[in-house]
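Record 1 of the preview.
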Amino acid sequence: MIQITSNLILYTRIRTANVLLVGIRALAAEVAKNLVLAGINSLTIVDHEMVTEDDLCSNFFLSETSVGLNRAEAAVAEIRKLNPRVQLNVDISDVRTKDPSFYIPFDITIATDLDFGTLSTVNASTRLSNRPFYAAGAHGFYGFIFADLISHDYIIERQKSNMPTNLRAESSTRSIINVSTKKESGQVVELVTKREIYTPLLLANSSPLPPSILNSRRRLKQVTPLLTCLRALWDFEKTFLRLPAPANPALARGDLEHFTTLATEKHAELQLPGETLRSEFLRSFLQNLGSELAPVTAFLGGMLAQDVINVLGKRQQPIQNLVCFDGNTSEGPVFALAPMVTSLDGVGDVNGAAMGVNGASAGAVEDMGMGMASGDAIVV
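->
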């Protein structure tokens, strides 16, 4: 009976959820597909751009007849076929014109394939409205997912052990705030309520790696250079208001030099070994910018949608807070990035402080579920 009630609550939370999706390119199409099939209450799509022929290569909601039409309006008819019970709304205005009150009716906002300035602006607005926020983007073989849930409580169910679970901080972002038990199939099940505290994108982008990585030469060498390249890309976008253009003869040389300088600076700021930032990786990253690959967008979209469903249901540990996915290696390490803070004893600490195995306490490792400790890799 308890299990049935728990599942009903989970279903109700998903069935009544109202989600805002900003942009509807290939990655967002995967997110929309998964959320609509999951049976949310409503999906609102904001996109002021028109369909181009390039969109047809990777967005399965569009066809040749869609070219020249508004991207959201063109996609919504096909999305509706997946689940007629889900309310679909379209907004063809520019999201940059929206004020914070626009985000209040939505339980979660997901912004995809936008420049860093727009992502930061939307994130600031969702924070002012006290609404969870996700950002995601895909560039060929590479992509990222960022989560700012502000403050999120969730429940982990596990078999009760002989050792008591105490209310305590597991890391500088995660705390155990409540513990209860229930009987299920003759066993005692422990329900542990945890709270994750998040950092907005603008601050996370300038935050250091957690001590569990910084204090280990081996782990520093394992940090993907994609993290460096994403930070360099976002700085490039803030300066030039566009992507680097290595294929444009008029811009290629200057863009390559500027991007390489930014990447070198960001790599040093992260305290990563210089030998892990190779010219081959920089070249590959730049060549992939602006392109979309279906296998990569499918993986990122599925992972993002699953995390949204977990957050809506308040089950399992959510993403904390940046996933960097490299399709060449099929790995997606998760980095917990937050500003440096000073503890009561004056010792500096950051999000995701070392707590044992892979940056988590022994108890946390048992019940991570879909969540990952900082620097852990998702391998597909």
